[in-house]
Automatic annotation (TrEMBL):
<dbReference type="InterPro" id="IPR001127">
    <property type="entry name" value="PTS_EIIA_1_perm"/>
</dbReference>
<keyword id="KW-0762">Sugar transport</keyword>
<dbReference type="GO" id="GO:0005737">
    <property type="term" value="C:cytoplasm"/>
</dbReference>
<dbReference type="Pfam" id="PF00358">
    <property type="entry name" value="PTS_EIIA_1"/>
</dbReference>
<dbReference type="InterPro" id="IPR011055">
    <property type="entry name" value="Dup_hybrid_motif"/>
</dbReference>
<protein>
    <submittedName>
        <fullName>PTS system IIA component, Glc family</fullName>
        <ecNumber>2.7.1.191</ecNumber>
    </submittedName>
</protein>
<keyword id="KW-0808">Transferase</keyword>
<dbReference type="GO" id="GO:0016301">
    <property type="term" value="F:kinase activity"/>
</dbReference>
<feature type="domain" description="PTS EIIA type-1">
    <location>
        <begin position="35"/>
        <end position="139"/>
    </location>
</feature>
<dbReference type="InterPro" id="IPR050890">
    <property type="entry name" value="PTS_EIIA_component"/>
</dbReference>
<keyword id="KW-0418">Kinase</keyword>
<keyword id="KW-0813">Transport</keyword>
<keyword id="KW-0598">Phosphotransferase system</keyword>
<dbReference type="GO" id="GO:0009401">
    <property type="term" value="P:phosphoenolpyruvate-dependent sugar phosphotransferase system"/>
</dbReference>
Length: 167
């Protein structure tokens, strides 16, 4: 009731939510991803990671919304309502699932750091356009802001890559 009259208590720190790195590797600004669908932010706001190992973990506590039939991408709804798309590599849909092992399915509850997908990094590097993996908030309009906060190198499940400010 007091929030209605006086606004949110900015000192609590509860207005922000962090999305953690789903992969270990080097961060790449979304604008530098060599695919206009991502670099022009047609899918939403986010960051990209050039992975150094073939594991994708959950970037937040939440629920798996979708695993693409070709295993190259999945969607998660975080507990705060953020919808997160993890798209492993670029033009990897053409691989038709080869090189990917999915460990979850739609409807599964996940915790930050849970293994979601394993993939053959060498195979993806050889057969796809790029291993760069966009991590996208597909509903940025539901937040006051979506800001990249990632250091140059990130460790899966340990380093924050995005900070979302609630409206």
């Amino acid at each position: 009731m007091f929030k209605k009259w006086f606004g949110k208590n900015k000192s609590t720190g509860n207005d922000n939510f962090q999305v953690f790195a789903p992969l270990t590797g080097e961060t790449v600004p979304l604008e530098k991803v060599p695919d206009p669908v991502f670099s022009q932010k047609m899918m939403g706001e986010g960051v990209a990671i050039r992975p150094s190992e073939g594991k994708v973990v959950s970037p937040a506590d939440g629920e798996i919304l979708q695993v693409f039939p070709t295993k190259h991408a999945l969607g998660i709804k975080a507990e705060n309502g953020a919808e997160i798309l993890i798209h492993i590599g670029l033009e990897t849909v053409a691989l038709k699932g080869t090189g990917f092992t999915v460990h979850v399915e739609a409807g599964n509850k996940v915790k930050k750091g849970d293994l979601l997908v394993s993939f053959d990094l060498d195979y993806i590097a050889k057969e796809a356009k790029s291993t760069i993996t966009p991590v996208i908030i597909t509903n940025p309009q539901d937040f006051r802001s979506v800001s990249p906060v990632a250091p140059e190198r990130v460790e899966a499940g340990k380093d924050a890559v995005l900070e979302l400010a609630k409206k």
